[in-house]
Amino acid sequence: MEHITQTPTVKAPAERFAGEVYLNMIEAPSDPARLASALVRFTPGARTNWHSHAKGQVLYVTDGVGLVGTRDGGVVRITAGETVKCPPGEEHWHGATDTSLMAHIAMVVGDEDGDGTTWLEPVTGEQYAAALAAVGH
């Protein structure tokens, strides 16, 4: 057993996120297990870049209100207690609404090269505004 009493909060890298986003790593992938998980906190309007995961991703919302968007224009509004599963290879983004914080636990199963995430370009202001409009916000 390993008892971890605290993990440091770090600012998320600007090349992968828009706005103020903070991370607390829960688990990094390492043999033989390959689970990566983190508590991710988004300030209003903050979001990830477009990205995908080789083996998919699970997001469990712990606080606030957020959005998850996909390349085909699909958008879901997410709130505390809800889970979103993103399938392997699906390009998507997630973040807070423009008026609320949002925090989630992000979980991925890594591959032999790390956490299996492919980071892409930022979500544009127009894409973000369209997502807000799609959920009636």
Overview of the molecule:
This protein has 137 residues and is mostly beta strands. The chain is 7% helix and 46% strand. The chain contains one helix and twelve strands, in the order ββββββββββββα. It has one helix at residues 125-134; strands spanning 10-11, 17-18, 21-27, 35-42, 47-48, 51-53, 57-70, 75-79, 83-86, 92-96, 102-109, 117-119. The strands form three sheets. Strands 1, 3, 4, 7, 8, 9, 10 and 11 form an eight-stranded antiparallel beta sheet that branches. Strand 3 (21-27) and strand 4 (35-42) form a beta hairpin. The longest helix has 10 residues, at 125-134.
Question: Layout of SSEs?
Answer:
Elements: E1 10-11, E2 17-18, E3 21-27, E4 35-42, E5 47-48, E6 51-53, E7 57-70, E8 75-79, E9 83-86, E10 92-96, E11 102-109, E12 117-119, H1 125-134
Antiparallel strand pairs: 1-3, 2-5, 3-4, 4-11, 6-12, 7-8, 7-9, 7-10, 7-11
- In terms of DSSP E residues, the strand content is over 45%
Distance between the termini: 45 Å
The helix count comes to: 1
Overall pLDDT metric: 94
H and E order: EEEEEEEEEEEEH
Helix residue percentage:
under 10%
Query: What is the radius of gyration computed over CA atoms, rounded to a whole number of angstroms?
Result: 14 Å
Q: Low-confidence stretches at least 5 residues in length (pLDDT < 50)?
A: none
Task: Count every beta strand, where a strand is a DSSP E run of 2 or more residues.
Answer: 12
Q: What class, by secondary structure content?
A: mainly beta
Q: Tell me, what's the shape?
A: globular
Report the sheet with the most strands, covering strand number, pairing sense and barrel closure.
Answer: 8 strands, antiparallel
